[in-house]
Every structure is written in structure tokens, then in C-alpha cells.
Amino acid sequence: MVLLGAPGAGKGTQAKLLQEKFAAPQISTGDILRQAVADQTALGKQAADFIKRGALVPDDVIVGMIGERLKQSDCQHGFVLDGFPRTIPQAHSLDELLARLGCKLDCVLAVKVPQTEIVARLSGRRSCKNCGAPFHVSFDPPRAQGICDKCGGELIQREDDREATIKHRLEVYETQTAPLAEYYRTRGLLREIDGVGSIDQIRARIDSALGDLAA
Ligand code: AP5
Questions:
Q1: Best probe residue, ligand 1, of 13, 46, 163 (max atoms within 8 Å of C-beta)
Q2: What secondary structure letter does DSSP report for 57?
Q3: CA 67 to ligand 1 centroid distance, Å
Q4: Cα angle: 179, vertex 93, 190; to 5 degrees
Q5: CB–CB of 89/96 below 8 Å?
Q6: How, if at all, do strands 108-112 and 134-136 pair?
Q7: Is 205 left (phi over 0), alpha (psi -120 to 50) or beta?
Q8: How far from 10 is each of 70, 133, 140, 146, 203, CA to CA, in Å?
Q9: Per DSSP, what are the bridge partners of residue 140?
Q10: What are the pLDDT digits (tens) for 26-76?
Q11: Of ligand 1's atoms, which has the minimum distance to the CA of residue 158?
């Protein structure tokens, strides 16, 4: 399945819950890119400046990266795509990749959250430096300040969660990613989720939107 939504809509938070529920890996393009930047790989060097500015990394780079990831053995029984596709050309490439792998999307979950809430979520987000788990200083605080509940790693603020960069990321989302909802609606795959409420409430809405897939 694919999780669609603006920056800060809660895709990563819910994708991690779906990963547990379905025992299918969460594939977050943002996490893969940030790891590549931290490791200073060739991919990381290519992507670093785009991420810092809140711009999209070029489609060919992302599609190549996802193509490699989907071939790995843990994806054989399904996967949760978080942050991909993000442009119409990426969606076409995903269709081609899936056809080559002999599989298809079960559904596309679009999580909808108003911009004012998004700014509050992103400016208070803290992410684990080791495992990428997201927390929020007010809405989802860790048990011990600055320390990841899951792996004990250090919690940091992402560089692209500064106010000016958040604004740019939201503009990029509106122009380049929001049209994907229509792309998937016309293919009968889109399921829209009201993303305002507690993390548990959103999880329950997703379960109910998944219907028979969640059984
Ligand atoms: P990426 O890491 O994918 O960032 P994003 O899409 O901007 O999404 P976020 O990770 O910011 O938010 P989220 O929706 O996952 O929310 P979260 O669950 O963390 O991409 C980063 C960059 O990489 C891009 O800008 C681009 O440069 C590049 N990139 C990535 N993919 C690409 C692609 N396909 N093509 C080209 N470039 C690409 O939640 C946010 C906060 O809210 C957290 O603090 C969380 O605890 C809190 N929260 C979650 N749910 C709730 C709730 N229900 N109530 C209150 N708080 C909540």
C-alpha cells in the first residue's frame, strides 16, 4: 500500500503501526535518504542539498533507489510505501516497477490534515537519530526527554523542520504531490482518512478504511 499526505500528516507514525500489523516493511524514502546523507554515500551527497531546501530529490534518483529496495526479500509479501510516489512521473514509474515484479497496489491511504496543525506537528517533532521513530514534544512525548522509547537513541530535530523550510515543503506538496490523489482515485485505489485526532484515533480510522484488507 501507499501512504499519501502532506509533510507532517502522520504518514511515518501510521506506517510504523501498519508495518507491525501486516508484518510488511515500511519503506520511507525520507528515512532512506537521511541515512544515505548521514553515511555520506554517493546517493546522500546527491540528495543532501534538496532535502535541506525542502525540495524534491530528482525522480530518476528516487525511482532507482525504490527499484532496488523493492527487490529485497522482505518485500515479497507486501510493503508500506511512505513518501513515495510524490510526483505523477514517480507514480507511473511505480506502476512499471510493480508490473515487472508481478504485484499490484491494494490501496492508497490519503491522510488529510489542515496546514495550521501541520506546522504545530512539524515544529514540535523530534526523531530518533538511530531508528527514525517520530515523537512530538507535546502530542507524543518520549518517556524520557530526548531519548527514543524504542531503541534508546538520541532524539533530534530534523534540519528541514525549520519554519521557512516547512513552508516550502508544503508548497511543493500542493503543486507536485497533491495531484496524486486524483491519479489514484480514478484507479479506484484511494481511501481518504481524516488525519486530525489522536494517533490511536487515526489508527482506528485507517483500520476501518482498510476493511477486508485489515482482517
Ligand atoms: P520525508 O521524510 O518523506 O518527509 P515528509 O513527507 O515531509 O513527511 P514527514 O516525515 O515530515 O511527516 P510524516 O507525514 O511522516 O509525519 P510524522 O509521522 O513524522 O521527506 C523528506 C525529504 O526527502 C523531502 O522533503 C525530499 O527532499 C526528500 N524525499 C523524500 N521522498 C521523496 C520522493 N519520493 N521524491 C523526491 N524527494 C523525496 O508526524 C509528524 C509529527 O506529528 C511527529 O512529531 C508525530 O509525533 C506527530 N504526530 C503524528 N500523528 C499525530 C497525531 N495524530 N496527532 C498529533 N501529532 C501527531
A1: 13
A2: P
A3: 21
A4: 40
A5: no
A6: unpaired
A7: alpha
A8: 23, 12, 12, 20, 10
A9: 136
A10: 999 999 999 999 999 999 999 999 999 999 999 999 999 999 999 999 999
A11: 11
- pTM, entire model: 0.94
Q: What is the DSSP string of 113-162?
A: --HHHHHHHHHTEEEETTT--EEETTTB--SBTTB-TTT-PBEE--GGGS
Give the distance (Å) from ligand 1 centre to CA of residue 121.
Answer: 10
Spatial separation of the C-alpha atoms in residues 128 and 210, rounded to whole Å? 29
**Ligand 1 nearest atom to the CA of residue 90, by list position:** 34
Give yes or no: 112 in active site. no
For residue 132, what is its C-alpha cell? 527514525
**What does the pLDDT look like over 110-155, one tens digit per residue?**
999 999 999 999 999 999 988 888 999 999 999 999 999 999 999 9
- Of the candidates 199, 130, 123, the one whose C-alpha atom is nearest the C-alpha of residue 158 is 123
Q: Above 80 in pLDDT, residue 215?
A: no
Given a contact cutoff of 8 angstroms between Cβ atoms, the answer to whether 59 and 4 are in contact is no
